[in-house]
Design goal:
By secondary structure, the chain is mainly α. Helix content is about 80%, strand content about 0%. It is elongated. The relative contact order is 0.13.
């Protein structure tokens, strides 16, 4: 019977929460008889609609420099949302493989030293993930509200109804209601792939730390059992690389686009912060920094994929 470390039940609860988010974004919570399998297309269609709304507003509505920058930020963000959500929606099977891999990392190891290491790193990763999510969720919501509030304050549009041009002196109330719901629903959708990405990323870091502790334990292995121990290390190493390749396949294009988009957004936001009322964009700046930070946390995993960790430690231990 497989035994698991103490923090595994807590991880199970967290994984159920993640999978619930994935079911919501897939709309798989709706019985298939109602939509006949087309429910998975609803979210992408909405995102395309939101992106069309942003482009339409930017092209056909009057604007000064500030409003133009805000509209560019929204349009870029909606494009990023479409790409990131599609990377999750189209790869649910691969994500389930990664979740299964994380579950296996919570198993009790034959060596107590390694089990103790797993307890420390896996529990720490879960704690960090919860802190980041606790900051990210309200930051994203407030950022969305801030953008719409600025639009209302200057009496302009960010996400107009596509095809509906603004009539001078007409009431923008319904337009503002439209862009509020589009913006906030987009924010909710964005938080799902962000949560998945951050969670898997930090667990990869924890597993890499466990692997390094396994390597450090080689000197304590009985010489008679060292060959078998090295075989298990190699097997574990290949398993990590295999799962990291799956992770890269799922989020490769997301990372590439996120680097460019985050850089542009940060430059624009710093410019906006210097203007009157720019303080309302501080939550948006925090949200962009969170997105940009998700790229940085995988630096160690990328080094590991290139074999630097394994090649640096193992030859030394085998001497």
């Amino acid at each position: 019977m497989v035994r698991y470390i103490e923090c595994y039940p807590e991880y199970q609860k967290f994984e159920k929460f993640i999978k619930l988010l994935l079911r919501i974004i897939n709309l798989s919570i709706i019985p298939k008889n109602y939509l006949r399998g087309y429910e998975k297309f609803i979210i992408p269609i909405f995102e395309i609609y939101a992106l069309t709304s942003g482009v339409f507003t930017m092209l056909f509505y009057e604007q000064d420099l500030m409003i133009f920058i805000v509209r560019v930020l929204c349009t870029v963000g909606l494009l990023y949302l479409l790409i990131k959500s599609l990377s999750v929606l189209a790869n649910t099977d691969q994500l389930n493989v990664l979740f299964l891999f994380i579950q296996e990392a919570h198993q009790v190891y034959q060596v107590d030293y390694v089990t103790d290491s797993a307890k420390i790193y896996l529990k720490r990763s879960l704690g960090i993930i919860k802190i980041i999510i606790g900051i990210m969720f309200p930051a994203y919501f407030v950022a969305g509200i801030g953008v719409i509030s600025y639009s209302v304050y200057v009496d302009s549009m960010v996400l107009a109804v596509p095809g509906v041009l603004h009539i001078p002196k007409a009431d923008l109330f319904y337009h503002h209601m439209h862009q509020f719901f589009v913006m906030q629903l987009s924010v909710i959708i964005l938080m799902v792939p962000e949560t998945v990405l951050i969670s898997i990323g930090f667990y990869f870091i924890a597993i890499l730390n466990i692997f390094k502790d396994i390597l450090r334990y080689i000197d304590n292995v009985d010489p008679m059992n060292k060959r078998e121990f090295l075989f298990q290390i190699h097997k574990f190493h290949c398993n990590i690389l295999d799962k990291f390749c799956i992770f890269s396949e799922v989020f490769y294009y997301t990372f590439s686009i996120q680097i460019a988009m985050s850089t542009v957004c940060i430059l624009f936001i710093f410019f906006i912060l210097q203007t009157d009322g720019g303080f309302i964009f501080f939550p948006l700046l925090l949200a962009v920094f969170i997105q940009f930070g998700t790229i940085c946390i995988f630096r160690r995993a990328h080094l590991f994929e290139n074999g630097k960790t394994f090649n640096r430690i193992v030859p030394h231990k085998l001497v």
